[in-house]
Amino acid sequence: MSQLTAEKLEQAVQLVRKSGADAWITFVRETAGGGDPVMPLILDGGLTWQSALIVTADGARVAVVGNYDADPLVSSGDWTEVVPYVQTIREPLIATLEKYLPQGSPRLALNYSLDDVKADGLTYGMFLLFKQYLEGTKFEGALVGAEEITIPLRARKTAVEIQVMRAAIAETDRLFEEIGQFTKVGKTEAEIYRYVQGLIEERGFGYAWDRAGDPIVNSGPDSMLGHGIASDKISLAPGHIFHVDLGIIKDSYSSDLQRCWYVQGEELGVPEDVQAAFRAVTAAIDAAAGAIKPGALGWEVDAAARASLVGHGYEEYLHAAGHQVGRLAHDGGAVLGPRWERYGRTPFIPIAENEVYTLELGVILAGRGYLGLEDMLVVRPHGIEWLSERQGQIWTIS
Amino acid sequence: MSQLTAEKLEQAVQLVRKSGADAWITFVRETAGGGDPVMPLILDGGLTWQSALIVTADGARVAVVGNYDADPLVSSGDWTEVVPYVQTIREPLIATLEKYLPQGSPRLALNYSLDDVKADGLTYGMFLLFKQYLEGTKFEGALVGAEEITIPLRARKTAVEIQVMRAAIAETDRLFEEIGQFTKVGKTEAEIYRYVQGLIEERGFGYAWDRAGDPIVNSGPDSMLGHGIASDKISLAPGHIFHVDLGIIKDSYSSDLQRCWYVQGEELGVPEDVQAAFRAVTAAIDAAAGAIKPGALGWEVDAAARASLVGHGYEEYLHAAGHQVGRLAHDGGAVLGPRWERYGRTPFIPIAENEVYTLELGVILAGRGYLGLEDMLVVRPHGIEWLSERQGQIWTIS
Fold it and tell me: Which value does ipTM take for this structure?
């Protein structure tokens, strides 16, 4: 997926320029066991020795890396220069900075942030090393955090990223279809959970959140809601709602969707209380979607959904109406949530074009269980475009 | 595996005491996407809000965590006190430090290190936050790196850790047996690679290193050695060596082993040049193992293996004779390698009791391919105990 990193590096140049920094530097080592969360956006694969990935406001993209790591970077074509070293990164790093930033005292942006964990990949030991290397040079005085670069770089998806996410969503839709075919009255939540995990692993997908709770499977009024574990003791029974919250990772990007079914009994069709709840949940998600546009704030979007649901006579949900999706299901940045203290400043971050969000909410129906829906969208200049195909009506199982 | 974290915390208390620090603090947030590499040693599961895991030289183990994260820590029984908070960690953190460290100006050890990436889990943003919180208290002046605690904590295995690693090794042995049964003349490297990955995924194991290169499958003289990719074009042919380097993760701990086969042709038995190479590789690994004991240095161990192999008339290998294994196949700390600059100070870290190493080396046989072996061991008071069952002679395939 070299097109992906190429596009993100192009985007990074624009963001560096806009941030006022002269260069953005991702400084890492031995990234196999984790590494800086920003790195996969701009580089496929890992780096072993101390490495500096430098993007300048002038558009240079320079990688100073150990000589064993150089070949894949050269062949990616993403870097305008690759500087391999053997003994120590110090001299080649300083020489590279001097070559590309000859004027004045340049501002160097590094990956640290007090607020956003995804923008805080530089470890303290690496910061100290970096400062040591710059000692006595003109660069030592001007280190700043790179939040203004790394947060939008992750959030604002390129065309290729959106295409990859569409593919993850399509595979999730296919899993929902298979769940509908597999599921029958009498099957337990845990049987369905294991069936889905079998398919996910057979197809080589990852889990968009902790494997233990993916998928979330809820059936009937006794099910553990939220992040509960699928039960071996609860099986599908007529008159109940059956609900699945499922996210996969395909080609490094996540989906996060919810679908629901009515477990049909002897009655004709789906009872009116279930249909009314489905309509109310759909309307609340529509209300949220209608409030999303570049510049809108997350709490405004959440308030629209919350008011709609309450207006239909249902209780408020106890979470945010939506969140960003990207490499992970919960991908940081703006949250489409209420102005509750636990969400900190995240409901106040303005929404921007090309960000991908999911909208999710539901209601509890007495005696029947949880009816919830979740759909994904991308922000466009004047509103949204749905990435997932909405569920038009509640499906049935018998 | 709560017994595991309980044992590691017990060990941590001893290491804090020995280090001269008054308390060791792991300060993290939103650990789902990565987090501090030290955390899984002392805690099962993740933490969401800013959290401080505190171990004092007096034996207190106190966790200051967000209220939603508190329950699993309380029920683990690992923590002498769990302090939940709702609004901000600042006041409960300071109050906890004051309660447990009432005297003088205590030294607080934090997870940063210029040399060891596994001991450098504190991000710079989190360091700045921590300093901010301590401002104006008696704790602000005495922050030190926790290398002396975190490096041995990871390296020195408890009885439970060794037991878990034995199970990972046993599953790897089983995979080698299945490889021997599956493999026939004419199968390609890539077929065997895919077969092994299928078994690994079916059984729910992880990969001990990058999935793309696990297992490494080499067959014959034209195979890509080292970290090369299994080929669809190279198939097993009589007279060649077939070699597999394989590591899995089971219950969070890794294996890393190599086995080899001779591809039998019309001739009777295994040719003498192959048998001689197998004996020489075995002898070199024996020489390394014989040099391992608490206090020995990695370069001395490597030198013993290197001298043995050269003494048998073979060329030197171009890597280290061994490395630590733990949660990952390459688990940091001491390296059993030569005093080459690229290994830095790692061949000079003294070997200690209960550390787990793997020993690996091989030779290239002209016209036949790579004959390599790798076996795992634990350091005991006066020498070593093998954890893997050695391969007594080269196996055959036809």
Answer: 0.81
